[in-house]
Design goal:
single chain, 506 residues, Arc Repressor Mutant, subunit A, 9-stranded mixed beta sheet, 3-stranded antiparallel beta sheet, 15 helices, binds manganese (II) ion
């Protein structure tokens, strides 16, 4: 368990996350304007009368957006509400032309109800993180500030694009239920899982750098052993895993200090300052916003039938958790390896492409990817599996790695030679692994008689070691293997070398 040591003892950390993901759709949640607001699109060119909040305009719900919400809900094992509503959440911002955001009521079940995702907890075991709800809402427009001279602009292209807000669940009635986030690392793993589910489903790019995924971070602390939850603070609009982890840790330590100095934590909204790595109060509880939610009179309740849910369920692809299970059960990979290979859908697709239908390849491919390829991210194109040479570095494809692994399995080359071929490829050598092996004369010697003469030579030249081995120092086998490998310029098949040595040394 992750704890922080204070002056008075150990403290544990309780984290809740409200994650917004920008949902992929052709048009906006309540209008027909394009939802593609990327920076190359000229400002204020994708704006309908609804998005600009002209008086008397009526929102029309985009059915595809609803399908996206249902799809995501099924992806997080959630209940889909058969009936949910839309509400107006009132506040003023220059980038919110309506003066309110259409969202779903805070007190009623939204389109996606209670669900969960599974992550690897800090103890290395799978852990469920409960989700309370995921609701649909509109994104705001974007303010742009130009300081020379000082002017501000509003670009309405993003106004009305659909967001899905995913809120984790803290079971205050059953504090023993530990299905919530308890450390900065678990927060990151949870967010990565949400991101990969959203990507696998095509619901969102969920890219923090691009702003299509952002999180509000709720943090509270309590002494280890305490059964109830204490007051939380909320740090708004975080867009990097690193900053989120830093904010959780800083905020937890700040709260511990407050308690240990006899103070009380107040339910404040905080702002994180990335340069200093600290949080400061943005607004205190006394100034908390009252959003005055009320039902949107322009929108009917959202009714979702079982048929619709089942139709969408049939289109669901394999999600990261299922992929992990498949790797463990079908390929016999360790939990750790399976987790590494499902960190992103692109990685698991790369792995799947390399393994193909040859189960025997899975373990060696996993080892090569995790211990070699991941150390050279510039040498593979995880997204598009492209090939070629860029800046003198070869882009290694799933086919390249599969061929290399097959050559070892077929005893054509040994592990050491495979590594050499791999390094040559990293350095820009072109051609298939077979062609490279031919070009550099890397062929494994499996011919027993050729290896046998090297074995005999090594035994003859090291009488002292032979004596020691025979008197019980069997650890010396490695010494003999090493010498035979050296004598064969690294080309001998290690399995054959081992077998012959054991036989001859008795
Ligand atoms: Mn929200």
């Amino acid at each position: 368990m992750f704890t922080i040591k204070g002056k008075t003892g150990e403290w544990e950390v309780v984290v809740g996350l409200e994650t917004h993901i920008e949902v992929l759709s052709n048009s906006k949640l309540f209008s027909g304007a394009s939802a593609d607001y990327n920076p190359t699109v000229a400002p204020n060119t994708q704006v309908s009368m609804v998005d600009a909040a002209m008086p008397g305009m009526l929102p029309v719900l985009n059915d595809y957006c609803v399908d996206q919400a249902i799809k995501f809900g099924l992806g997080i094992n959630a209940e889909i509400s058969h009936k949910s509503k839309f509400a107006r959440k009132q506040y003023f911002y220059p980038d919110l032309p309506q003066g309110y955001q259409i969202s779903q009521p805070a007190e009623e079940p939204p389109v996606v109800g209670r669900g969960y995702v599974e992550i690897i907890g800090d103890d290395g075991n799978p852990k469920k993180i409960f989700i309370e709800r995921a609701h649909m809402e509109q994104d705001a427009a974007k303010n742009k500030h130009d300081m020379h001279p000082s002017k501000s602009f509003v670009d309405l292209n993003r106004s009305g694009v659909m967001l899905l807000e995913i809120v984790t669940f803290l079971d205050t009635k059953n504090p023993e239920n530990n299905s919530y986030i308890t450390s900065p690392d678990e927060a990151e793993r949870y967010l990565r899982e949400i991101r990969e589910i959203a990507r696998a489903l095509g619901v969102s790019k969920a890219n923090m750098e691009e702003g299509s995924m952002r999180a509000d971070v709720n943090v509270s602390v309590r002494p280890v052993g305490e059964k109830t939850f204490r007051t939380r603070t909320e740090t708004k609009n975080m867009v990097s895993f690193k900053f989120i982890k830093s904010a959780i840790e800083y905020e937890a330590r700040r709260q511990i200090e407050v308690y240990e100095n006899g103070g009380e934590v107040t339910q404040d909204t905080m702002r994180y300052h990335p340069d200093e790595g600290i949080t400061t109060v943005m607004r205190s509880k006394e100034n908390a916003l009252d959003y005055r939610y009320f039902p949107d009179p322009d929108l009917l309740p959202l009714i979702i039938t079982d048929e619709r849910i089942e139709r969408i369920r049939k289109t669901m692809p394999e999600l990261p958790a299922a992929t992990r299970t498949r790797y463990i059960e079908k390929y016999g990979l360790s939990e750790y390896d399976a987790t590494r290979l499902t960190e992103t859908t692109d990685i698991s697709h790369w792995f799947d492409a390399a393994v193909g239908d040859k189960t025997a390849r899975a373990k060696p491919i996993a080892n090569w990817m995790i211990s070699e390829l991941f150390a050279h991210p510039e040498n593979y194109d995880i997204e598009n599996q492209k090939s070629g040479v860029v800046d003198g570095m070869r882009i290694i494809t799933p086919t390249d790695l599969a061929e290399l692994v097959d050559m070892i399995a077929a005893n054509e080359i040994n592990g050491k030679q495979a590594k050499e071929i791999f390094i040559k490829m990293l350095d820009g050598e072109t051609g298939t692994p077979h062609e490279i092996a031919d070009k550099f004369g890397m062929k494994q010697i499996t011919d027993t008689s050729a290896i046998e003469s090297a074995v005999d030579e090594v035994i003859k030249n090291n009488p002292a070691q032979v004596e020691q081995y025979k008197s019980g120092k069997v650890g010396l086998l490695g010494f003999f293997v090493g010498n035979v490998m050296k004598a064969t310029a690294g080309k001998a098949n290690p399995a054959v070398v081992n077998e012959l040595l054991r036989k001859k040394l008795g």
